[in-house]
Amino acid sequence: MNAPSPGSTDPKIIRNFSIIAHIDHGKSTLADRMLQLTGVVDERAMRAQYLDRMDIERERGITIKSQAVRLPWTVEDQTYVLNMIDTPGHVDFTYEVSRSLAACEGAVLLVDAAQGIEAQTLANLYLALEADLAIIPVINKIDLPGALPDKHASEVAHIIGCPISQVLRVSAKTGDGVAELLDEIVRQVPAPVGRPEVAPRALIFDSVYDTYRGVVTYVRVVDGELSHRERILMMSTKATHEVLEVGVIAPEPIRERALGVGEVGYLITGVKDVRQSRVGDTVTIATRPASQPLAGYRHPNPMVYAGLFPIEGHDFPDLREALDKLQLNDAALVFEPETSAALGFGFRAGFLGLLHMEIVRERLEREFGLDIISTAPNVVYRVALEDGSECQVTNPSEFPAGKVASVWEPVVKASILAPAEFIGPLMELCQSRRGVQTGLDYLSEDRVELHYVLPLAEIVFDFFDALKSRTRGYASLDYEEAGQQEADLVKVDILLNGEPVDAFSAIVHRDKAYAYGVEMAQKLRKLIPRQQFEVPIQAAIGARVIARETIRAVRKDVLAKCYGGDITRKRKLLEKQKEGKKRMKMVGRVEVPQEAFVAALSSAGETERK
Amino acid sequence: MAARPPEGDVAPDDGRLPDGLASSRQGQPLSLYLHIPWCRARCGYCDFNTYVPDRFDREATWPYLTALGLELELAARLLGPRPVQTVYFGGGTPTLLGSADFAWLLGRVSALFELDPTAEITTEANPETVSPRSLENLRRAGVNRLSLGMQSAVDHVLAVLDRVHRPGRAVEAVDWARRAGFDSVSLDLIYGTPGESAADWEVSLEAALAAAPDHLSAYALTVEPGTRLAARLRRGELPWPDEDDLADKYLQADARLEKAGLTWYEISNWSRPQAACRHNLVYWQSDDWWGAGAGSHSHIGGLRWWNHRLPRHYSARLADGLSPAQGREHLTDQQRRVERIMLDLRLATGLDRRWLTASEQARLADPLARGLLEVRPIPPDRASADGSADRVPSGQALDPAQRLGEDSAGRLVLTPAGRLRADGVVRDLLD
């Protein structure tokens, strides 16, 4: 197949699209099938490439990512260029999704024939509709025994307002219907429109750190042309860089002379940190810059903060190094050193959301082999003081003592999709999380979409688990920021023998303060071993104690028998215990095994779930 | 003796002691322990090195007893002539042996060492294995002290412990032992068995005291891993012993025994005046003893070693002319000091303060203030007799600069509440 070459492709034959799908609805399988059908990868090479991926990476010195793959496809003797742009499938990355969609003119809405549309897919669909993209609805997995293609096709048709006959049916697994889908993409997705003669403008929709090449920036050229050996300007940061390479992914990186209007590709500048090449930013030419950046750039602001501490204190330098490395590839991750009396040296880190936090945690553990413990996630509060001043609180320890006029917390607009039978339990859950219902839509006879305004703090605290357990896993959730609201929030401190344990302080709604205090105090009582003296555990708001438990003093700590053969054993045990004592954390005079803190933090919220 | 051997260095096949060790201990009193590794049935709580043979006859016991004799010869060869002041037959159930076996073993001891005519010669006994007649014979064989495993006087408690004797049997046996002419009789009790109430424990204490023993050991039930009892607890068939219950019962026993004229002298031991077990004091004061038999531990002048555990293996090694020792450790001065602190604090005679470093002395304030420890004067006879200060090994952490003045003299003795937390006190005290 003679594919048009990049850099000089007529925009009229370009089709830029994304696939919007829920995890497990078959997006990767469909993408693989498209690679095969368009001939860029043959069936045998498909497997080989998959298997040899690591070797290829080593040979070519670049990590192959399918952020944007260029595919040739011929319809009625005309060969078109299809750019398939990947979207992050993640609730915390709504903004990144919106930028990927902004790089497209069309979107394939892929829905599993057995499961129907999910909340996140719906949210991304709304983003695509807002961006005015052509939507091609597709029901996947029609070959599955449990498939209900008619039911879900009518649901999808109802949501986007199209005749049910326009909903395509494919099996990405067998390849059934995929060629027709490619034809439809060519027919329905509009060609990109831009001005080749004006100062270049390209949208950054992804930015990935590569060990060999530094940051690889994925762009969609809107106006003009980007060629290599030019100095480019990042319009938000005003930073300039020399372009070392431009190219397209097909699906291996191919170095090209230039990228023209409507084209999608990558550029490499030698920058080492993705924060210098931010998603949503506009790339232009330094020597003749565009006057206006493309609309929609937003600086990522952390929504959730938590303390990250190494379980082994001596891992602290390794944790710093690991976070530094993660930050190269994660522009939204922020962190600064924090010291906790209970947990030692660590970092206060900010994340886009709870799932972003979990990804970071998982990567620290898996990729860097670190054992870490995180404190309960904390949203960003705005506290107005009586003297008229204001402060931002991302850590309970910063919560001002006294003189607080009002406290504002972030809220989100949440939508929950679930089978109608779960409306009751879901409304109960949202109510218990201080939610305010703003609407309820039936997507089909037995599927509903619930709309709520919820405090973000209530969502970051095990809301997903509660949602899943109350709906046997059927509900899905999406949310977006929706400003702030004033709320009756207080800081609850947990005191051990009168000393506050910083890691357990929490900002909670006054109505829940007692429950939190009792829960933490009871948990710690069970986890902290009896001491040489009686130790009170108290939960307090300011100076007012709201709950109390007592760790009783040790009464018996002696081996009954110590005869000839026991002496060596007993001395070795003593030596071991002395060693263990060194690893105890001291809170005032109370010795607490690190494991007790870890256990208390890892099980946080468990009892609240009920 | 504990079931699992500790980790240590490999012991030499010929049992040879480090150069100069034997000669440096020349003339020092020696104690002998002889392990008899058999029982009729194994009790569910027991993790001692003991076996239930298919049959129990001469043919089964003779190779082992021969090996014991060979090990005593090895001991005599390596140590030279030493005055033996105590002999202790432990088990297992030593009284499964006939009195002729006792006589023979004690005969070997007399032939190989200088057995002191006033030596304390103890055997452990299960009440069900003794009779008036057997006790007379034991006494005639030379045994003069009897330690009876009574454990409890309550049926359901004995049942949980898998003890087969009648509750009254041990008390009866004390009487028989007196008639047979034993100088000293001791009873062992266990408290904190699952299902034992405070009233049950009182019944056992009263029953034991009614027999008027010279000595009484009361042990908190210790759940040893790998025992049948541990398995039953894990499966939830029985409730785990409770820390507070054990503490209450200890204090209950201490008060009751003191009232009856049995004075506390070690964490789990009480006796009439002058009736403390001399053999066990050897362990606690780190004097010299040779433990003969499968799995036995020995200590000579800072060298500790332990024998192969399996009786067959043990006997085979001796039959081959090899030392039965499996592993050993030569204590550093610092380790000896730690042991000194750990062991002396278990005793009513207490710990001479001068064993502690300056920083350890500084930490005394806390347990003293909490009423766990008391300072008592050092009795003049003791200070001069065994020269406590002289026992501080040379060249260890106590350099003269750290030594405290005269005002630091005194011995540290645990209070009843402190005894219950002896291990914690030591842990907090040590540098």
Largest sheet of chain A at a glance? 8 strands, antiparallel
Figure out the total of helices of chain A: 15
| Largest sheet geometry of chain B | 9 strands, mixed
Q: What structural class is derived from the secondary structure elements of chain A?
A: alpha+beta
Count all strands of chain A and give the number. 34
Strand content of chain B: 15-25%
Distance N terminus to C terminus of chain A? 61 Å
* Unreliable segments of 5+ consecutive residues of chain A: 48-54, 60-65, 605-610
Write down how many β-strands of chain B occur, each being a DSSP E stretch of 2 or more residues. Answer: 16
**Span between termini of chain B:** 29 Å
Strand order of the largest sheet of chain B: 8-9-7-6-5-4-3-2-10
Corresponding CATH superfamily of the largest domain in chain B: tm_1862 like domain
| Helix coverage percent of chain B | 25-40%
CA-atom Rg of chain B in angstroms:
22 Å
Entry summary:
Chain A has 610 residues and is of the alpha+beta class. Chain A is built from 15 helices and 34 strands. Chain A has an eight-stranded antiparallel beta sheet with strand order 11-10-16-7-8-15-12-13. Chain A has a six-stranded mixed beta sheet with strand order 2-3-1-4-5-6, sandwiched between helices.
Topology:
The complex is a heterodimer of chains A (about 600) and B (about 425).
Chain A: E1 14-21, H1 27-37, H2 43-60, E2 68-75, E3 78-85, H3 94-102, E4 106-112, H4 119-130, E5 134-140, H5 149-160, E6 168-169, H6 178-188, E7 201-210, E8 214-223, E9 226-227, E10 231-234, E11 240-242, E12 245-249, E13 253-256, E14 258-259, E15 264-268, E16 282-285, E17 304-310, H7 316-328, E18 334-340, E19 344-351, H8 354-366, E20 372-374, E21 378-379, E22 381-385, E23 390-393, E24 404-419, H9 423-432, E25 436-444, E26 447-455, H10 456-460, H11 463-470, E27 476-487, E28 489-496, E29 499-500, E30 506-509, H12 510-527, E31 535-541, E32 544-551, H13 566-582, E33 584-587, E34 590-593, H14 594-602, H15 606-609
Parallel strand pairs in A: 1-3, 1-4, 4-5, 5-6
Antiparallel strand pairs in A: 2-3, 7-8, 7-16, 8-15, 9-14, 10-11, 10-16, 12-13, 12-15, 17-19, 17-20, 17-21, 18-19, 22-23, 22-24, 24-26, 24-27, 25-26, 28-29, 28-30, 28-31, 31-32, 33-34
Helix pairs in contact in A: 12-14
Chain B: E1 9-10, H1 21-24, E2 30-36, H2 58-79, E3 83-91, H3 99-112, E4 114-125, H4 132-141, E5 145-151, H5 155-160, H6 169-180, E6 184-191, H7 198-210, E7 215-220, H8 228-234, H9 243-259, E8 263-266, E9 269-271, H10 278-284, E10 289-292, E11 297-300, E12 303-307, H11 311-319, E13 325-330, H12 333-344, E14 351-352, H13 358-362, H14 365-369, E15 373-376, H15 380-385, E16 411-414, H16 416-419, H17 422-429
Parallel strand pairs in B: 2-3, 2-10, 3-4, 4-5, 5-6, 6-7
Antiparallel strand pairs in B: 1-13, 7-9, 8-9, 11-12, 12-13, 14-16, 15-16
